[in-house]
Amino acid sequence: MTSVSYRFLFGLGLATAAGLASSQPVRTDPLAPLPPGSVRPQVTSTTRAAPASLAAQINAIGRGFNGIVGVSVVSLRDNWQADYNATRLFPQQSCSKLWVAVAAMDAVDKGRVSLNDKVTLGRSDLTLFHQPIRSKVLGGGHTTTLGSLLFTAITQSDNTANDKLMRSIGGPEAVRNMIEAKNLGSIRFYDGERALQSRIAGLIWSQSYSIGDAFYKARSALPTSVRKASFERYIRDPYDGAAPRAVAEGLARLQKGELLSPGSTRRLLSIMASTKTGGLRVRAALKPGWEWSHKTGTGQNFQGRIGGINDIGILTAPDGTAYAMAIMTIPNKSDGGAQELMREVTKAVIANHEARRGG
């Protein structure tokens, strides 16, 4: 086997301090230095205090978790916000595909691209991990539309579809510019799945990793000390990090039509409602008539610790009341505890809604 190139990743600044568990918004917290093109947290409008019983439940759920968790829930109707450790930066993983989609729809709104624009994917576009589109690409190339890439990236969390969409609208900088222009706050965006995942592992990306199990073999060939240092550095200061509060507030603005045109807003939320991933997360706790338009994210597993298990989206009650929710976790064990926590938070939000609105 050929030797594997790897590097130690130094100089990324201090870890972001974890926010204190609180049901009240805290508007300032120290953040690590941001990478070029990233955005400093912005001050947002103050919301009302969340219902005390719900805030207490979310705090109790968060404190009982085996790992690190951040939760933010925003009621769009009543303008309250319930937070737990919601200013800490958490790994987004595939949740960052949402911002690629928003940037793409924003480009559509500005007339820069059309969702009907054709694109062709070849072997050089392949990424790693989950990429269902790979079989079509390996069959001699695959021509599709930007709209199809967006749908596949969100609903199936396809890494290759996402990265091709990102490059088609201007690359990582276009996404970062959108985040900054729309004042989304404490949300970072890295350079796509290939760059992100290889850096987390302690590797330098090679396109050969996109085929078969080459990435896994290269990662396994690294000294454990390299993998551990790279993984822990990412957990401390994630290159794609986002604060649950910023994510929930961004989702609330999306739902309210503040980020995109009415047509693009409806289309993106409809696509998010078709998401197939995360069946054991928030969706598993829904009661009849409730809807969940969302994006999931799952990180790499190193010695049983997961670099992010997340579910973010818009929870809608049968009466139309909408809640923006961001639940972001770094579990100490891959034992299903993160998924259970998400279900418990969802049940608490639904129970609070039913108690206050009569079911």
UniProtKB/TrEMBL annotation:
According to the UniProt record, what class of enzyme is this?
hydrolase
Residue ranges occupied by any Beta-lactamase class A catalytic domain in the UniProt entry: 70-329
Matching entries from PANTHER family are given as: BETA-LACTAMASE, BETA-LACTAMASE-TYPE TRANSPEPTIDASE FOLD CONTAINING PROTEIN
What catalytic activity is recorded?
A: a beta-lactam + H2O = a substituted beta-amino acid
Q: Pfam families given for it? A: Beta-lactamase2
Indicate the family of this protein: Belongs to the class-A beta-lactamase family.
- Kindly give the Gene3D superfamilies that the UniProt entry links to this protein: DD-peptidase/beta-lactamase superfamily (3.40.710.10)
| Organism superkingdom | Bacteria
In the record, biological process GO terms are: beta-lactam antibiotic catabolic process; response to antibiotic
Q: Which residues form the signal peptide?
A: 1-17
What protein name does the entry list? Answer: beta-lactamase
EC number per UniProt: 3.5.2.6
Q: Which GO terms describe its molecular function?
A: beta-lactamase activity
For this UniProt record, give its keywords in alphabetical order, as a comma-separated list: Hydrolase, Signal
